[in-house]
Structure formats: structure tokens, C-alpha cells
Amino acid sequence: MAIRALLINPNQMRPPIAPVGLDYMAEALNERGHQVSVLDLCFLPDVHQAVSDAVHHLHPQIIGVSVRNTDDCYYAGQAFVLPRVKEVVQTARKESDAPVVVGGVGFSIAPEETFRFLDADFGIEGEGEIAFCMLADRISRRGKFEEVPGLLYRQRGQLLRSLPHFAELDDLPVCSRRFVNNARYFAEGGQIGFETKRGCTMACAYCADPVAKGRTIRMRSPSKVVDELKALLDQGVDHFHTCDSEFNLPEEHAIEVCEAITRAGLAEKIRWYAYCCPTPFAHELAGAMKEAGCAGIDFGVDSGDDQMLGWLRRHFTAEDLRRTARTCREYDIPFMYDLLIGGPGETFTSVKHTINLTKEISPDCVGVAVGVRIYDGTRMAEIVRNEGPLAANPHLHGVVDDNPAFLKPIFYLSSALGPDAAGHVRALVGDDPRFFFGGGDDPSQDYNYNANELLVEAIRDRGYRGAYWDILRRLRLDRAEGEPSA
């Protein structure tokens, strides 16, 4: 039996990021015959009124609220966004008798704690396309909930939780991307995300992606990736960014996606960016990406010190970083390196190695994060728990009291770096304009994308498009040349 479903996006970060997950979820509900509407709060000033109006107009029988992030993930910012999501949940529950369901990547990192904090009726850990549809079916038929994968709910005062299910992506509907206003997101956000796979097999000490998306890589058929890009191109979107944990894992699938984009004739029509691991990155992949219209790559390198890379459980070395940079230059692909400073074992010496190596390699941009956000279910969480009480740990900063699952922002910053680690890094960087930092007084070097007014203005008013790091890079180059260019 069909059910009326209302999906709500509470994310109001700027520049705006299109809610890809809600687009996918709406497609799945629609395919099952349900009546689905999306309420996007990103562009609406009065959140409470918008939710109230939508509920009274649509009379939904189930309401889904997406949790993309719990915070901004930056040590300098530490903006905790769940209170705003909770306001949306509370308004929906006040205005409607329909059950409120929360889910999304941010929710799935710490599902029990987030569920309790938001005080919703149901929560879905992991992917929602199948689970949300199953829950909608059971609500419409007054069925039992035990078989819904990844479901959290209360029964007689007890919190119950089933294991999540991670689907084969080709079993999910081909997404037309028509339920979200992607054209407006593109006009004000400069890029739109798409997926070629989900999940990650890497064991990086700090990363929550395998926790939220599964520890097995599940790939989409290249033809389905192309179909989705075509659907977005028909909406006027021509700049994209992969949402994959690492586009080049596995490398063979990445090459197949690139070849499919090229065969479809899209390479001359679109520009796209990718997150990649520094290895594997063979010449064949670089050539395929360039031919398919790739405009830039963001490599998560974390450190240039081999000992620190070992601490962080990365599988590459400093020499691999040099090799990846040479390959990008050979194929004329702009690239950036993301650094993560301050993890376990970090010292002044290891930081100096990292900054010196990065300057030697000379990427087009370098993103610097000082302080490692800790998430439950990761190796970092195990490390700090083994070090004793959080409040007594000299390496920890943020909400160390009454925060055992690290739901609120809490960061690891090696005490060996002293009281001004960020200042020490900035002194090593000097006046090199390629380095961007999270926070700080100079908006042209602010790598925190939340409420980044320089990016907002460049995209909305000056027509810049692409990955945010590349927009910042081009703004820097344009200022140096004395003439604007989009």
C-alpha cells in the first residue's frame, strides 16, 4: 500500500551541498509506489514555519530527516550541528503524528548516541534506500519492525537495534536526480556530487567512512554512473565531484568508469573532481581520468613522515607521494594534498618532515588540518580509551566531559607539539600561498568550507565552478594576475 513520505534536508551549510542521499532515497521510495516529497531547508530562512507548512499541506504518514554531518570536523571551528537537526525533529513531531525517522552518513557514525540525542521515533543505520522503504511498508500495514535492516527503535522503554544491510548498488534504482533542486545547488554551490561506489576496505586510524558506509567496496556499473551524469547534465549541471571514499580503489573500476564517460561523449561536456588515495595511481588511470574530463584530484596524504604514516595506518610512503605528483604533472592534472597534523606520535620533527616534503613536491594546493577528529568505531577511539579517562588526557581537546562515544566534537592533538601547534605549522609554511588552513583570519586561506563567504561569493556572484580547493586556487591565481576569471 502506498504511503505519503516527506524527506527533510536540515543542512544549511554554505556554500550549499546538494543532499545526494535524499535524491537516492526519494527515487527508491518513488519506485516502490510511495508518494514522496522533499523539503529542503537549505534555502529557507524560517525552518520551523517551513516544516509546519509542509506537514499541514502534505499530511505525511512517515517523515525522514537526513543527518549528513554531526559537526564541521575542524579543530578551529568545532561547530556542533546536531542541535539544529534536533529542532527540525522536534518540530516535525510536534506538528504531525507521523513517525520521524533519522538517518544518513552522520547518523551512522554513532547511531545509538545520535538517536538518543535527536529523540526521533526511528533511526536507520547504514543505507536507507532499502531499509526506509521496508519501514514505510510496515508502517502502512502495521507490520513488525524486526526485519528492517539497520533499524533503531524503542519498545517498552528498551532501545532495539538490528544489523545494517549494505546493498549491491546495481540492485538499487537508477537515480534520475529529479527530487532535489540540483540546478539551484549548482548555481550557489558550484558542483554536484555523484557516486561510483560505496564502502571502504582501508584501515586508516581516524576515518569513519568504513563505519558509516561498510568495510566492503560495492561498485556501481559504469553505465549507471554515466546515466546519472547525463540526468544531471540535462538539468544544466556540468561540474561534479565524486562522493566515493577513494575513487581509485579499486583502480580497475575507476578506469572503467572513466572509459564509459569518454565513450558516452561526456568528456567534452563536463568537468569533474575526485577524492583519491595516493596509491595505486598508475599512468593508465591518470590518462583515463584526464581524457574523461577530470579537472582535479584531492589526495588524502595526511603526512609526509613515514613513521607518522605508519601510526595513521596508511599503506603508502613519502616516496609514493613524490611518484603520484610526478604522474599528475605528466598528465597536466591539478592536484592537492590534504594533511592531517597532530595524531599519535606526532612531533616537531615529523611535522617539519611533512611540511618540507610537501613544499618539495609542490602540489597546486595543500589543505592543512591541525587536530584529528575522533569517531567511535575507529582505531583512534581505541587509542584514547586505552590512554585512560578522556578528561585527564593531555592530547584531547573539545568536549571531554560526558562524551564517551565522541558524539560532540573532540580532537586528538599530540601534546608534544606544545600549546600552539597551529602557530608552529604556520611558521613552517611561511608565506607559501598554496597552503590552506581550517579557520584563521585570512578568508583566502580558509579551508573550512562551512560558512566560507569567499567561496559563496565566488560561486554565486562571479560564476566560479568546481571543487572548493580548486576555486580557492584559481582565486589566488587570478588575484596574482590582476584579472578575474571563472
- Major sheet characteristics: 7 strands, mixed
Strand portion, in percent?
15-25%
Structural class: alpha/beta
SS field, number of helical segments: 18
Within the CATH hierarchy, at the fold level, what is the topology of the largest domain? pyruvate-formate lyase- activating enzyme
The Cα radius of gyration reads: 22 Å
Q: In the residues, how many domains can be counted? A: 2
Question: What's the total number of strands?
Answer: 19
Strand order of the largest sheet: 2-1-3-4-5-6-7
- What coarse outline follows from CA principal-axis ratios? globular
> For the terminal residues, how far apart are their CA atoms?
50 Å
| Mean model confidence by pLDDT | 93
Summed up, what is this model?
With 486 residues, this protein is α/β, with parallel strands linked by helices. The chain is 38% helix and 17% strand.
Fill in the keyword field for this structure.
single chain, 486 residues, alpha/beta, Rossmann fold, pyruvate-formate lyase- activating enzyme, 2 domains, seven-stranded mixed beta sheet, seven-stranded parallel beta sheet, globular
